[in-house]
Write a structure and sequence with these properties.
The complex is a heterodimer of chains A (191) and B (199).
Chain A (H helix, E strand, L loop, with lengths): L1 H12 L4 H9 L3 H20 L5 H18 L9 H20 L9 H8 L4 H9 L2 H9 L2 H12 L4 H8 L3 H19 L1
Chain B lengths: L2 H6 L4 H9 L4 H13 L1 H14 L9 H17 L3 H6 L17 H22 L12 H5 L3 H9 L8 H5 L6 H13 L11
The chains are: A mainly alpha (191), B mainly alpha (199).
Chain lengths: 191, 199
């Protein structure tokens, strides 16, 4: 009976936007939370899995992230920023997980490079890359794995230097130096 | 990022399914991820792609997990108010939509405990030999009595009864220290706050 009631209520929340859902979650609405979880968990898990090879850690981080969403949704006051907001929580939780474990050996930031070394890109993939900025794509793929990791963690994932250091398992000074070198070589490649 | 940029441009379907399969270059996955953060339509499309790729193994599609998760967090919220709430008022903010969760079977457990305690007392009374004379060995029940509260508290917070058991067990204070603290709290609660009456 509980399941059918939940299903009927989730039908009602089905057409709401993520922002409306989050506001309802802030008010303690369980159906809204279920719907938000249904929408968010897949892409969040995918993105986390691209950064952490350990499925168990990913599952833990995902759980803690949604726990945090449930508790702090009342503090969400943005418009159309739920994706970035959730990712901010998830990336912090990932850093926390690595801080607890003290092990940074299962990061998969360099998985793309390993694959690129073994598989030559197909014509379709070449074409797809070209739908994005081709200069940027070339410049990015010519960066060394260490520099690209640092750029991904700090620029794309929006983590601080200290958090990046925890995630990558290198000293903060190294992160700063690599970020500087990465930006310089990108600038050189794009100009 | 202007809002209409996220509505006019969307990740091409092939790129999205490539990303879902984990089969894209770094630059492409960067742009997909950056766009996904801002675009709800592409997030929904990605979810559909994922369920099409692996209907059974779609991550996080288990509503039971979400339900259990929400229940778990409801208990955690009720037991420890957030610092902000504690600072704002005298107690946790009353939430009319979320009554404090009561475990199913709590009433049965309570009734069982009452029956056990009364029954055990009656059995001991019937089988006992009255006041012990000097030199008699101590009855076994007197020796075991201090341990009984520990047993009760351990059962009440056991794996089957406490929804936060796994969380608590993973903390440094979990295990015996926490059991002793909880028992101390249980034993302290019936004590009168003032000085003991008469002597």
């Amino acid at each position: 009976v509980r399941a059918t009631r939940a299903t009927r209520r989730s039908d009602a929340v089905h057409h709401r936007t993520d922002d409306e859902l989050l506001r309802a979650v802030g008010g303690g609405d369980r159906a809204a939370f279920d719907e938000f979880h249904r929408r968010t968990a897949p892409w969040l898990a995918l993105r986390l899995r691209r950064r952490c090879r350990d499925d168990e850690v990913v599952a833990d981080v995902l759980q803690e992230t949604f726990l945090s969403v449930w508790r702090s949704a009342a503090g969400y006051a943005g418009t159309d920023r739920s994706g970035g907001w959730v990712w901010m929580i998830a990336s912090r939780k990932l850093v926390d997980a690595y801080r607890r474990r003290g092990a940074a050996d299962s990061l998969t930031l360099d998985a793309d490079i390993e694959r690129a070394a073994t598989v030559s890109p197909s014509a379709e993939e070449e074409m797809l890359v070209n739908t994005y900025d081709p200069d940027l794509a070339t410049a990015l793929s010519s960066l060394s794995p260490e520099l690209r990791q640092v750029l991904q963690v700090t620029v794309l994932d929006g983590l601080s230097t200290r958090e990046a250091a925890v995630l990558l398992g290198v000293p903060e000074g190294t992160v700063k130096a690599r970020a500087f070198r990465a930006r310089r070589s990108l600038r050189a490649a794009l100009s | 990022v202007s809002p209409d940029r996220s509505t006019t441009w969307h990740v091409p379907g092939a790129a999205l399914s490539g990303y879902a399969r984990g089969d894209v270059s770094a630059a492409q996955s960067w742009s997909v991820e950056a766009h996904l953060e801002a675009c709800a339509a592409c997030r929904a499309e990605l979810t559909r792609t994922l369920t099409r790729l692996a209907p059974a193994a779609a991550p996080g599609s288990d509503p039971v997990a979400a339900l259990r998760l929400a229940e778990l967090s409801g208990v955690a919220l009720a037991s420890q108010p957030l610092p902000a709430q504690a600072a704002c008022g005298p107690g946790p903010r009353p939430s009319p939509t979320r009554p404090p969760p009561v475990r199913r079977g709590a009433g049965a457990a309570y009734a069982l405990a009452v029956v056990l305690v009364l029954g055990l007392a009656a059995v001991l009374d019937l089988t006992g030999t009255g006041p012990a004379a000097a030199g008699d060995p101590l009855p076994l029940s007197l020796l075991l009595a201090p341990l009984l509260p520990l047993l009760g508290v351990a059962l009440a917070y056991g794996p089957g009864a406490d929804p936060t058991y796994e969380l608590v067990a993973s903390t440094p204070l979990g295990g015996l220290p926490l059991l002793l603290w909880r028992t101390a709290a249980c034993l302290a609660s019936p004590c009168p706050p003032g000085p003991p009456p008469g002597s």
